[in-house]
Amino acid sequence: MKSFDAKIYLFGTEIPLGAMYGILMEACALLLVAYIAIVIIKNKRK
Questions:
Q1: How, if at all, do strands 9-10 and 13-14 pair?
Q2: Which among 6, 16, 20, 46 is least buried, having the fewest CB atoms inside 10 angstroms?
Q3: pLDDT (tens digit, 9 = 90+) per residue, 14-41?
Q4: Using an 8 Å Cβ cutoff, are 26 and 19 in contact?
């Protein structure tokens, strides 16, 4: 069975696994905050 390699390189430097999870969590948090802000703004207009 072959595995999927998901290493990220930035300017030739390999990004550690912890940093990759950090980037993923920050992206999810940012999307969640944007969604909540949109919902709040739409509810205020009613």
A1: antiparallel
A2: 46
A3: 888 888 889 889 999 999 999 999 999 9
A4: no
Joined together, the tokens standing for residue 5 give 């390699």
Tell me the C-alpha distance between 43 and 35, whole Å: 12
Backbone phi, psi, residue 13, to 5°? -110, 130
DSSP for 25-38? HHHHHHHHHHHHHH
Write the DSSP symbol of residue 46: -
Match 């072959």 to its residue by tokens.
2
Q: How far apart are CA 6 and CA 19, in angstroms?
A: 13
Torsion of CA 18, 23, 28, 33, to 10 degrees: 120
